[in-house]
Amino acid sequence: MISRVPIEVRDANAADLDAVAGLFxxxxxxxxxxxxxxRVREFLRARFTSDDTxxxxxxxxxxxxxxxxxxxxxxxxxxxxxxxWVLNDLFVEPAARGTGAGRVxxxxxxxxxxxxxxxxxxxxxxxxxxxxxxLYESEGFARDVSFLHYVKVIGx
Length: 156
Prior knowledge:
By secondary structure, the chain is an alpha+beta fold. It is built from four helices and five strands, in the order E-H-H-E-E-E-H-E-H. The chain has a five-stranded mixed β-sheet with strand order 1-2-3-4-5. Helix 1 (17-30) packs across helix 2. It is globular and about 40 Å long. 24% of the residues are buried.
């Protein structure tokens, strides 16, 4: 386990591709989703060149190597008539869990969303990911009791 040191968050960029890809592959494995490394790298390269995402890295003492990542996508709410962010990906390496890395990543996404004028940040997590649920709830997220969310997988 990584000792408890201050965790700093920064924007990821194309020069971080190796670090982000390594963390992202672990994230996909956590959710039992096998992925080809080359496909992951292509996906991440596209995120670095687009303006559709905010991708953050967490580093102990701001020194690296990165121990966690968060990725949020900018979207819109038609009902609320405003911008929203979707915290789509949050992952912290097992050895760095308990250091506060996940918390500072969530806080950084929320702060940036607020600065950008978003009216809310939404997210989803697995039913059995109790640790993440506890983190989200302690940061002010609440389970949606107004809407049911549905998913239809297309051609995959």
